[in-house]
Amino acid sequence: MQGILAESEFPVMVVHRDALQHNVATMAAFAQAHGLRLAPHAKTHMSPEIAAMQLEAGAWGLTVATVTQARTVRSFGARRVLLANQIVDPVGLDRLAAELTRDPDFEFLCFADSPAGVDILRAHAPERGFRVLVELGHAGGRGGCRSVAETLDLAAYVEKSDGVALAGVSGYEGSLKSAEQVRDYLGGLREVAEHLRLRDPLLSVGGSQWFDVIGRELATVKATVVLRSGAYVSHDDGYYRERTPFNRVEGELRPAFEIWAHVLSTPEPGLAVVGMGKRDAPYDEGLPIPRREGVTVVAMQDQHTVVRADGLRPGDVLAFGISHPCTAFDKWRTLPVVDSGYRQVGTITTHF
């Protein structure tokens, strides 16, 4: 055991500094090289330290999913916030309106996918109004108008409504299953953007699993294209390792998370119980990935992980990578940042 691992209570999840810095720089460079703006989805980490790294690397703004998250990243120093969701909460809208009134330099944008949603925004708008991106969805998607024509009709409704201002079009392609489906969907977003009566509309897309296709398909669109990629910042050893566009184009992301835990019990031959569980590591998009050869995770419980392996003894220490960063950060309020020798060189705090 070395560095912080010799001093910590277990389980402990660490963040590798070099991987974190590499990922922030890599995604910033990709966006710049393809003429894209990057508004990283802060709901992944909800960390002021990581937000500062992303903004210092040139992020256009920060993306969030809820009013509470928007108010939190404002406390991180974000001047431009994109709320990539519909907002219908009266209390939340009133608080956003108050913040927009208080700070004339605060830039805020949100989504709308129905006249009813626009009317709710109008009812709580500050004097300078809410800036709105009309959302184009797709069949089976989680939100958005279901056709280009419906989206353009909604844009016209926004344009004639007081209290809201049309800023562009938005969408989410991450739930589509193939590059062909993504290209077709992006074609609809392009069509909407090019029919809007705006000199420089925004066109915002998700961008974690298909940013290579986005970079090609939207290279010539007459709009400012904003990626909302989030999971790239820590990457992983599972879900995003398999799906990152850097499997198809030049470049790489590196897994920054690692969780360490003791073997607690070996109650049967070839079976061991490890002292970490669902409270400590994500399990919704794949189980943790053992870093030791011959170890296989078979189940997770609240505080335990069951593995199959030969030769383990109580007190042994195992390391695991994780799958799905978005449900890793939220399990820890503080995370030690370590160098290659596991010496602590910083701390990441989270505010979920």
From TrEMBL:
Matches recorded under SMART domains: D-ser_dehydrat
Domain of life: Bacteria
Gene3D superfamilies cross-referenced by the UniProt entry: Alanine racemase, D-serine dehydratase-like domain
Alphabetized Pfam families for the sequence: Ala_racemase_N, D-ser_dehydrat
Chain ranges of the D-serine dehydratase-like domain: 256-339
Record keywords: Lyase
Family recorded in the similarity comment: Belongs to the DSD1 family.
Name of the featured protein: Amino acid deaminase
Organism: Nonomuraea longicatena
